[in-house]
Amino acid sequence: MKSQPDGPLPDPVRLERLFHAAANLPESEQADFLARECAPDGLEYQAVLGLLAAERSSHSVWNAGAFELEARQTAGHSGQAREGQFFGPYRILRHISTGGMGFVYEAVRADDQYQKKVAIKIAQRGVDENAAIIERFRAERQILARLEHPNIAPLLEGGTTSDGVPYLVMEYVDGVPLNQYAAQCVLTLRDKLKLFLSICDAVQYAHRSLVVHRDLKPSNILVTAGGVPKLLDFGIAKVLNAEGAALTATVGAMTLEYSSPEQVLGAPITASTDIYSLGVLLFELLSGRRPYRNVTSALELTQAICTTAPEPLGSRKAPGFDPDLEKIVQMALRKEPDRRYPSVGQFADDIRRYMAGYPISARTDTRGYRTSRFIARNKSIVTVGTLGVLALLAGIATTGWEARIADRRFNGLRKLANSYLFEFHDAIKDLPGSTPARQLVAKRALEYLDGLAKESGRDKTLELELATAYEKVGMVQGAPNYPSLGDRAGALSSYRKAQAIRERLSAGAPADSRAAIGLAQNYVFTALLIQHMGDLKGAADASRKAMRLMEQFSAAHPADSEVREMLAKAYDDLANVLGNVDSPNLGDSRGAVDLYRKALQIRTTLVTADPSSREKRYWLATSYGFVAAANQALKDDPGCAEAFRQGAAILEQLMREDPLNVMYRRGVAVYSRSLSLTSLRMLNLEEARKYGDRSAALFAELSKADPDNAEAQEASADSIWSQGYVLEKSKEPLHALAHYESAVAVYGLLTAKHPENLPAGLRTAHQLIAALATEMGDLGKGLKNAQNELDIDSRLLRVDTNNAGARRNQGVAYAQVGKVHELLAAREAAGPRAMAEYREARNWYQRSSDLWQDLKKNGTLIPSYAKKPDEAAAGLARCDRGLAGHL
User: Fold this and answer.
1) Which of 417, 432, 285 is nearest to 358 (CA)?
2) CA-to-CA distance for 605 and 230, rounded, in angstroms?
3) Candidates 6, 128, 201, 215; catalytic one
4) Which of 215, 440, 701, 850 matches a 20 to 30 Å C-alpha distance to 832?
5) Cβ contacts of 154 within 8 Å, gap of 6 or more
């Protein structure tokens, strides 16, 4: 089939002039006229031909669907089945509908296996003029075979009749068209938007599978009695190439009212075409009408689609749609494809933001707009906070002449600072998009408390407040696994200031469990931070301080739940440094497992005693995640998957109870990503894709809702390369490579702001690119990324030579460089250059082998790396054979 022309959309005024000139000519002369006026293989030519064809259609059929029009064109051809006729094990019950590609029947499976109602779609019987229809029917079968989504009617099986007619067996959807469902049911605005989001999920899934539907309309979306939409009829759908463009064109096979300008004009089709159709569907779902009124012919509708701005959602009879919702719909309906939402996922994200009361991307992002959205979401907090601040300022403003007033001012500022820290900050800390606000709140509180501390001397209570302020500022600055700005050096400075205060206060009150908990918590904060900065020895020392302190107080206060939880955190923290494969570690996986299990036992007991506590349940879920990571290091994948599932179930329930809590949403995203990678190791691609899609969607929401949150951006990049790894194992190397390189780009933005930070995922992404590029024959890219791996490993080992994780990674990179040089030698075939490459390859394999042997001796060669020494030895042997063959 001829590929479609490319280029900008034609000028509507010129199109109209050409159309009217051609329309006044006999039909037999129209094509020649157009060939003289414009390029026969260009968009103008095809667009005017389409307008002329539309004009020739009678008014009675101009708004019929493509299926119906094609059916009329092929009327008279045989192919209908009879009631009671069998197709394989399926018996026809009744005729449902007729389309240009064939007939659709309700049928039932009637053999001895089971009874099941299905829909059977049978192609028109083969005649010469129907060859394209038969081909399109077979293409639909191929497309449906790759789509598995709860909102897409699945293909159950396909076959061919004895005389060569193909047929499809699909799920029978007992539902009504989308517009009919909306008219019959009393749906609130929120109900309509939730229904539409389910449709978006299905279309986005199809796009991720490189399929664009191209005929989205109410009759192709049936809604069941339970309110579940099902997307049907991929008869004119097309597979996209890697750049997102349809591989071939199908002109005219579409339903005009829901068609995009580029469909009408015969321009290239991309995923943006479906976004426009979804915009029309949303407009109709919300308003009960279509975007273009007062059109009486196909030509007028075509012109409106290409040149006329859609009407507002509201009307004189039913005004009042929120301006944000209006902006969302109008952005989806923009004439130019590149000005619409970049993806269905981003379209859906804007709707979710609107529903949650957050700023949308379709509107200009101003400070006033963000403030109005924040106030709308948090009316009670803002009202109370504003009144309190105004009252305090008023009280301070009316006093100041007498000494007692100075004391009142001191206490007032102290109260304000603590209100910032413990009320306002904690009220917004788990809200998406709150990172800049938390930074400002903590910074202002710290300024107040720092100044007061200088005035008051050593007031114990005030110093505790000051230590807490330093820690909160540190968390906002750069705490790992927490919404932060990514400034880890600044965070460490803040933690150290708090630590000095807490150590002094704890030394003065050695029996005070509250002071001990505060100090242990600080050690845990510090250990986690410096672990991610590469100082594993320092992290282990800080973790042991926290553990010893809490073991001492737990023995003295066995019923104190705060002390017990702090002990569990100390166990986790030390275990992470010893052997968590998901972070820099010392390689002691078995020691880590013992500590993780101690923490899990403590938290299980605490939740049993207080099952209503969300905080305790959250930390229990965290324990399951750590146990899962330890099982992974020991190559116990079933145990790893089970622990992740238990933790994920707790987090999913917490997220249902508090949908906007950032930590719960992040936890579900992290565990979904981990389950995806675990499923991949267990060779379950379906589960890997399912969990990967869930993780990617949540991470994308978090990063978009809070663009200043560096941790969210890093987690999003982690998710991107994870999705790429699933694609690689699904035999989609080009798409996998694109994901890996996208992840590197996101990490690059983060390290540009804070060059001292080295996200663990950055090194992983380079490793994946190196291995895949080498496998695909791009040895230059493979070598470059392997060298990037080694650069990161070297930087980490300069900070701490005991970093077993970095040393293991170094061994992998050495072998990767060796493999590239070995392949370069093979390319040379013979001669001095081949010899030189084999020697270089052997040198790198030897480095890898020496390193594995060293790790084996000191006990840090964990089970998941057990085969690496043999792989390095095999590389050495191959190089020796290559060198011997060239002597």
Assistant:
1) 432
2) 45
3) 215
4) 850
5) 144, 147, 148, 170, 171
